[in-house]
Amino acid sequence: MITQLRQVLYVDLTRRTTQIASRPELFAKYLGGAGVASKLLLEECRPNIDPFSPDAPVIVATGPLVGMFPCMAKAVAMFKSPLTGNLGESHAGGHFSSALRFADCGAIVIKGASDKPVSLHVENGNVRVEYASSIWGLSPLQVEKTLRPPDKEGIHSVTSIGRAGEHLVYYSAAIVDRYHHFGRLGLGAVMGSKKLKAVYVRGSGEIPIVRSTEFKAAYEETYRQVVETPLMMKYHYLGTPTNVLALNALRALPSKNFSKSTYEKADSVSGERFAEELLERKISCPSCPIACIHLGGLRTSFAPDHELGVKEIFEEMELVPYNYEPIFALGINLDVSDAKDVLRLISRCEHLAIDAIMTGAVLAWTTEAYEKGLITADETMGLRPKWGDVETYLKMVENIADVRNPLYVTLARGVAVAAEKYGGKDFAVSLGKNSPAGYFTGYGFVVGTLVGARHSHLSNAGYSIDHMAIAHGKSISPEQIVEFLVKEEDWLNVLNSLVACYFSRSIYEKDLAVKVLSAVGIEETKEGLMKLGKEIFHNLYSFKLREGFDLTKEKIPKRLLETESPAGYLDPKVIQHMISHYIRIRENEGLRLRPEEKALMDLVVPK
Amino acid sequence: MPFNIEVETPERCIGCYSCVYACSRHLFNAVDSSRTAVFVRTQRTLQNSFTVVMCRFCKEPECAYACPREALLPLPEGGITLIAEKCRGCETYECVRACKLEALALDKRSEFLRPIICDRCGDCAKFCPHNVFRYQEMKL
């Protein structure tokens, strides 16, 4: 019988030992997910540690409502990011969080490093570290097939890294249950540095319902909102690729390395086009009735030729998950305009387990750097990248994942490092060393991504306030945008601790959050939750600051000031003012962000 | 009012487990993926589609015929009911083995490892977002 979350599993890969500790106070205060993981990160991660040091921890946490309410299915990972050198935070759907919850495990802390490849197996209370050389080098998709048992009771999850993680590519991913990702900030590389190829979790416990009447009413209300109202319709229908045409119409669709904010071939890579030509199936995370994961069918040749030289007509179908971000990053931003070609690039990234958004950003920067003669064909191993050239891009992704020569070693460290070495900083599109998502909507997006703890558009939904301003013709002042970013990120940290999917944020507003928590016996108030969200944000930021992140030293790449957004050309003075305002607000909350006006003068690349 | 329920279009299953969780909530007042009378099964890899299995309410139920103690009573409208006092101390679980669909599971958390029997409440169908099930009220 599983009660409230309380157990933390500590794994030492060096000694291959495991230990389960009861930490009820941790979950009582921080609920789960991002709240618990950020606290464990501060406890377990020594200041200024090398992200690849054996002592650097990998933390994964689940949440208190998993299995109980719709759309509660994210696993939150925290680590020190090799890409940014500070906070690594990435969230994945799939079966991971549910398997953990049903195994009565609230969080896992993995430290140490093995000298040989290993996999971690958590089956309810039975935890083992096993040697796993036979699956090292395999793609996460093969690993999923290998480790998922034919049919055993409970919820199962297989998470694995690919070659990119094994080779310590700074933005390599860990792939969960084939179609879900800890995509961003390099968890794959941290696992690779520990020789941890895979994590298998099976949970088959039972969560009793303690307040039956209250629970039934709350569940039915939530389920109805998810399924029977338009609030989450977008994610179910075309999925996030519905954004392609919507953003293009707003002139907020970045193309060719953010050099334009429209894409003339948007129709050919639209959500509609993917659905008509490639969509085969949709799948869900456990407990979520939405099925936002859209799987496109990619026909691949079974063999190039028959042994007798006859063209092979039999084809294999591979199912590849697609959504807006990879279509933007590997399609629109590279001018790869054929939907099937985009799917081929996504598939390559999946097999290698590498972050699609940063991979797209690196390829886009490389294309321009090559055009401008900053890098040569000698350095690229003979490849001549140009817009839309999918075959060259496919080869380059492999070269990056296998870090084949000094150029690719550099590219494997992200856009900012590449521009530092080869030049071309003006068009090295990154914010806080992470590559931005595909929403060039205005100030909310750019400033939001820069100030967000994990430098993601999902940190504080900056694009959504821009969108509100554009769509409803509202005039929203820069200060109001900043205040929105602060509030939104604080609240999203509550949802990230419940491990609610970001897509369900319009369902789980404050009142409903209080109600569903009460239904499982956790008493919170709206005010208490908002205070908690702020505290979690402060924990995340204090980790960033401790590891050397300095908002006043961050730079906006010139490219983002030269391309017209729906809010016009972004004015560096306005951005500077917004950051100052942001720092002032956070400082008033008691967070030290070192806002020196002099340092702020250097914030934006001068014209 | 009980329901006639049938897994009509399992290929529509998105793997959300809403039916499974609804079933365990109804039968056991708990969420438990292994204590249920409806099953979402994965076939080794998630590249394969999910299968959804539940009792088909056979008129000539092989599970009932297999039980040496006659603890499962076939019902005139199809399906079975459990005579609990006859079902105890079993070590062979013939009923579970007999069902070709593997639609019967043992309740491993109960004292006597009894099979879990669908009571036709219809919650699986009501909470399926993709209409995998066909269901209607039974005319008794």
Mind sketching the topology for me?
The complex is a heterodimer of chains A (607) and B (140).
Chain A: E1 7-12, E2 17-22, H1 24-30, H2 33-44, E3 58-61, E4 75-80, E5 87-92, H3 96-102, E6 107-111, E7 118-123, E8 126-131, H4 140-147, E9 155-161, H5 163-166, E10 174-176, E11 180-182, H6 187-193, E12 196-203, E13 207-208, H7 212-228, H8 233-236, H9 243-250, H10 271-277, E14 279-283, E15 293-301, E16 315-322, H11 324-330, H12 339-352, H13 356-371, H14 390-401, H15 406-411, H16 415-422, H17 443-451, H18 462-471, H19 478-498, H20 510-519, H21 526-546, H22 559-562, H23 572-588, H24 597-601
Parallel strand pairs in A: 1-6, 7-12
Antiparallel strand pairs in A: 1-2, 3-4, 3-6, 4-5, 7-8, 9-10, 9-12, 10-11, 14-15, 15-16
Chain B: E1 3-7, H1 18-28, E2 30-31, E3 38-41, E4 51-54, H2 62-66, E5 72-74, E6 80-82, H3 94-98, H4 123-126, E7 133-137
Antiparallel strand pairs in B: 1-7, 3-4, 5-6
Describe the fold and architecture:
The complex is a heterodimer of chains A (607) and B (140). Chain A has helices at 24-30, 33-44, 96-102, 140-147, 163-166, 187-193, 212-228, 233-236, 243-250, 271-277, 324-330, 339-352, 356-371, 390-401, 406-411, 415-422, 443-451, 462-471, 478-498, 510-519, 526-546, 559-562, 572-588, 597-601; strands at 7-12, 17-22, 58-61, 75-80, 87-92, 107-111, 118-123, 126-131, 155-161, 174-176, 180-182, 196-203, 207-208, 279-283, 293-301, 315-322. In chain A, a hairpin with a 4-residue loop joins strand 1 and strand 2. In chain A, the strands form three sheets. Chain A has a six-stranded mixed β-sheet. Chain A is 40% helix and 15% strand. Chain A is an alpha+beta fold and 607 residues long. With 140 residues, chain B is of the alpha+beta class. Chain B has two domains: 1-55 and 118-140, Alpha-Beta Plaits (2-Layer Sandwich), CATH 3.30.70.20; 57-117, Alpha-Beta Plaits (2-Layer Sandwich), CATH 3.30.70.20. Chain B is 18% helix and 19% strand. Chain B contains four helices and seven strands; from the N terminus they run βαβββαββααβ. In chain B, the strands form three sheets. A two-stranded antiparallel sheet of chain B has the order 1-7. In chain B, strands 3-4 form a two-stranded antiparallel ribbon. Chain B has a two-stranded antiparallel ribbon with strand order 5-6. Chain B is globular and about 40 Å long. Chain B starts with a strand and ends with a strand. In chain B, 40% of the residues are buried. The mean pLDDT of chain B is 94. At the A-B interface, helix 4, strand 13, helix 7 and strand 14 of A face helix 1 and strand 2 of B. Strand 13 of chain A pairs antiparallel with strand 2 of chain B, so a sheet runs across the interface.
